[in-house]
Specification:
This protein is mainly alpha-helical and 535 residues long. Helices cover 63% and strands 6% of the residues. The chain contains 22 helices and eight strands. The strands form two sheets. Strands 3, 4, 5, 6, 7 and 8 form a six-stranded mixed beta sheet that branches. A two-stranded antiparallel sheet has the order 1-2. Helix 1 packs across helix 2 and helix 18 runs parallel beside helix 19. The longest helix has 33 residues.
């Protein structure tokens, strides 16, 4: 049964209570005015619901995008109006990149950032952002530099910690974590109301507690880059922001959609994110995406349609227009605690430990964590992408090789190393590359098989190509050379499980004997091989 629209409206109001303090805090992470984050959440959120199809996604500034934007702006060494203008141009270029990728139907590119790498990056990013929030809770100025610099400064300046700020921040964090045990209770909204009430009732700066400061909507004073060189540099820097935003957003959307049987198109969501970021740029906002914490909170709060996200954006607009004075009095330690609480889900080691248990991709994930912690957010993200591509290339270039044996007298042929009850056939060796033969691996794989074949007493070599539905020109040449080298060694080659396209391309390449002698099954090739070996 469809829930009434008014219930999605209440859900949206609760989401606004979460998005508002998070957005203000993310603006601080990026080194921009809080109003830019609010404008981004309003314009970007409304633009997304017009095109996007995820009923749970809440498009607003995210922690990862804020951290990468901060690192990007720091690398440009701009200040004042120039920094504001660069930030806006980066957001606009991020939106254009999304639209271009959608136009070219390249939504599948999100798969180039593997899940283990993305989880490792998210884990390292969560640690980085949480550590950078600790000075706000301690009531001291945050030092620049790596997180190790921040931690070192915190330790050396322990005597300067402000007791009231520490107490307020820790109490807020404890309250948020306690309220999380009751998902039906809008914890963020309750804490936001308490923060506003505290700021209105107490002169916090007089007691040494920092406050958020002005958060109203407005147009920052900006100057715009004009040279072609500067714009080309900004395109290069916007690409990583777009990549991590889409990987994070699509991961969130797809995960939530699968839970409820919803269907989404990656290319359409790319277009929606592009429109959201262009809308954010028009109001001089920040990069926006569908963060996992907001999306999960929206799902837990009972959202049944995109009306919840629409209501959240409209509620944020009302707060920015009519309650900016109250929001400005929110204590900084409470903002920091809200950010930390929102990121605690990313500190769960379960997904990383799972990789160690299954012994797959665990070191890649650990390297992604180490990259973010050691080299910073931007370089760590680029390293994470590079790790994904390197891991893909390594797996492609180094497929394993199985030697097959027969199970009993049946038609099943399995890996001899894994099945003790399987047996080799007399005078026959059967090899299977466990991956597609392509230019990157054909020589390595068939070279290894050739060495094993020469060392065996087999007179007939069966090469199973069940993993290769086609062959490129390099693989065709290598297969032909493999057959010729085996023939010179006194061994005959039969291709098994050869697909029609493989047979066609072999015949077209002049390898008629190989193509004509190939079989559709290993069992058929094995019978023919036994006959030839016995001759």
């Amino acid at each position: 049964m469809t829930k009434p629209v008014w219930r999605d409206g209440l859900t949206g109001l609760a989401m606004a209570g979460l998005i508002l303090p998070e957005s203000v805090a993310y603006a601080e992470i990026a080194g921009l005015a809080p109003g830019r984050a609010l404008a981004a959440a309003i314009a970007g959120g409304l633009a997304y619901v017009l095109i996007g199809r995820s009923r749970f996604a809440v498009v607003s500034p995210t922690s990862s995008a804020a951290a990468i934007l901060a690192a990007t702006l720091a690398s440009l060494s701009a200040t004042g109006p120039a920094r504001e203008g660069l930030a806006t141009v980066l957001v606009g270029m991020t939106g254009l990149i999304f639209l271009l990728l959608s136009l070219l139907r390249l939504g599948s590119l999100a798969g180039f950032v593997s899940r283990p790498v993305l989880r490792g990056f998210a884990f390292g990013l969560a640690i980085t952002i949480i550590v950078r929030q600790l000075p706000a809770i301690a009531g001291i100025a945050a030092p620049s530099g790596t997180i190790f610099t921040v931690l070192g400064s915190l330790g050396m300046r322990a005597a300067e910690w402000h007791p009231a700020s520490c107490l307020l921040g820790v109490a807020t964090l404890a309250l948020l974590l306690a309220l999380r045990r009751a998902p039906q209770v809008p914890g963020a909204l309750i804490v936001l109301a308490l923060a506003i009430a505290l700021g209105a009732a107490v002169d916090l700066p007089a007691h040494g507690i920092a406050i958020a400061g002005p958060v109203g909507l407005g147009w920052p004073d900006s100057t715009w880059p004009s040279s072609t060189t500067a714009l080309a540099r900004l395109v290069q820097l916007a690409a990583p922001i777009a990549l991590i935003l889409f990987a994070e957003s699509w991961g969130t959307m797809r995960t939530l959609a699968l839970r409820h049987g919803d269907t989404l198109s990656a290319d359409r969501e790319l277009a929606a994110l592009g429109a959201a970021n262009l809308a954010s740029a028009l109001v001089q906002g920040m990069p926006v995406g569908a963060g996992f914490s907001a999306g999960s909170a929206n799902e837990a709060a009972g959202a049944s349609s995109r009306w919840a996200a629409t209501a959240a954006s409209l509620a944020l607009l009302a707060m920015a227009l009519f309650a900016s004075g109250w929001i400005a009095r929110i204590p900084q330690p409470m903002l920091a605690a809200i950010v930390i609480a929102a990121l605690t889900h990313a500190l769960t080691p379960g997904p990383l430990l799972h990789l160690f248990r299954i012994r797959r991709d665990h070191w890649v994930a650990v390297a992604a964590v180490a990259g973010v912690l050691a080299f910073g957010v931007l370089n760590g993200m680029l390293l994470a992408v590079l790790l994904s591509i390197m891991h893909l290339l390594y797996e492609l270039a180094n497929p394993s090789i199985s030697e097959l044996g027969q199970l009993g007298d049946g038609h099943e042929f399995v890996d001899l190393a894994r099945h003790a009850d399987a047996h080799p056939l007399p005078g026959v060796a059967i090899y299977r590359p466990n991956g597609q033969l392509v230019f990157a691996n054909a020589e390595t794989v068939l070279g290894a098989i050739a060495r094993r074949a020469r060392a065996s007493t087999a007179r007939v070599i069966v090469l199973s190509l069940e993993e290769s539905n086609d062959l490129d020109s390099t693989a065709i040449e290598v297969v032909s050379e493999f057959a010729q080298s085996m023939d010179k060694a006194g061994k005959h080659v039969i291709l098994a499980r050869a697909h029609d396209r493989v047979r066609d391309v072999l015949a077209a390449a002049g390898c008629d004997v190989l193509a004509g002698g190939s079989t559709f099954s290993v069992a058929q090739a094995a019978r023919r091989a036994v006959e030839q070996a016995g001759e």
